[in-house]
Amino acid sequence: MVLVSGIGQAGKMPHYLRANFLHGLHGRTLAHATGVKLANPDLTVIAIGGDGDIYGEGGGHLLTAFRRNIDITCLVHNNGVYGLTRGQASPTREQGTRDKTHPAGVTMPPFNPIAVGLAAGGTFVARGFAGEKEHLAGLIGEAVRHRGFGFIDILQPCVTYNRVNTFKWYEERLYDLAHEQYDPTDRAQAFARSLEWPEQGDERVAFGVFYRAQRDTHEARLPALKRGALRGGPADPAVLRKAIDELR
Prior knowledge:
Elements: E1 2-5, E2 20-23, H1 29-39, E3 45-50, H2 51-57, H3 59-68, E4 73-78, E5 81-82, E6 88-89, H4 113-119, E7 124-129, H5 133-145, E8 150-155, H6 167-171, E9 174-176, H7 187-194, E10 205-212, H8 237-247
Parallel strand pairs: 1-2, 1-3, 3-4, 4-8, 7-8, 9-10
Antiparallel strand pairs: 5-6, 7-10
Helix pairs in contact: 2-3, 4-7
């Protein structure tokens, strides 16, 4: 197993776990995780980042990961702020919220990772809550076992800089999709549930597995990997020199 993270408060998580890890640049978590998986598809790869890291700087990589359906797990700590740099609004902060960098209020509507994941072709799109640890652990297990891109948006209060989306705020609104008459293979229904949020006038916020499907993974479609993993293969210095000369 390899844990991959970018710079940021969520990016420190691999440092506290007994596992192999790669700590790379802010916003490039999924790019690094993709490289690790393609070099050795036998590894279980888990990408960990914050909402600023993966939805802001790394938003393009996230869209590509959904489309590719590469077999890695992505865990996003979503608390609405850049906590390491003292609380600026992240892409998921609600419109109108005031902070040090938005004294007149955030002007853009919040980024909706669940809806975007569904629209981009995600095959495992889920939402967890830091206040429901056993439920979240179960979700992570499902995402890791899923053959493809396992994505979980984790609602996580920041007790220092986000005084709106507190544990109490979530506990009053969250409901588990598993307790509803809900089919996680129905993409249209998943999309409708993904749009539920108090800012849109809804009283409740869903969590759990929104959508689950199966299609070929990115690495299964790559001809170079049909001969086996890239790591451990024969190395020919002459071929490398030829490739470098061609790029000069």
